[in-house]
Amino acid sequence: MFYYVLKYVLLGPVLRLLFRPRIEGLEHIPADGAAIVAGNHLSFSDHFLMPAIIRRRITFLAKAEYFTGPGVKGRLTASFFRGVGQIPVDRSGKEAGKAAIREGLGVLGKGELLGIYPEGTRSHDGRLYKGKVGVAVMAIRGQVPVVPCAMVGTFEIQPPGQKIPNIRRVTIRFGEPLDFSRYAGLENEKAAVRAVTDEIMYAILGLSGQEYVDRYAAEVKAEEAQQTPKKFPRLRR
Prior knowledge:
Elements: H1 2-19, E1 22-24, E2 35-39, H2 46-53, E3 58-63, H3 71-83, E4 87-89, H4 96-109, E5 113-116, E6 128-129, H5 134-142, E7 146-152, H6 154-157, E8 171-174, H7 190-208, E9 212-213, H8 217-227
Parallel strand pairs: 1-8, 2-5, 2-7, 3-4, 3-5, 6-9
Antiparallel strand pairs: 7-8
């Protein structure tokens, strides 16, 4: 109930008014049945803008940190994400990927829409990065179509580190559903899941027009963090 109150009464109308999203290809979202919506991830605002314009309910796998924050703010954040139907996933450790796949297949098994960002994290510089293969495993094992999605302009409204978004128009594009039934039974084959993932990322790239980087975003972020000189506090004399 809380999900639909936010979508149609509280949050959704406000987002539409402020950001006036141009919506292209919404007809590619299946009217019923399980499907994966796979998109680029440029901003924290993506979590709210895409669900606000899709007619059906969509569930995202959200990082567990959103549900474990301290204090009153942390509890309110956790309640909000649970209320909108997001599922916490621990991204640390060897079993993290398996847990995410298990949770995602659970959503698909109920005939629902699953939202996922194949890059695994937000882009820190506006470029599109190499996709992780979990989306391919779920698409093949769940035997569901994948609808590519591109968020355009959300990096400019809320780049990393900015809490209050800029008010400007954004575009949300959906491409034709991708059918991977030809890969049935190959979800454990590395070559097959990489081929499916790359096809999904190529479709997102065609919709977004971003520069593509054939590396994982998390790796590039870590390297750049190490190269950034640390700032030490000035000593008082």
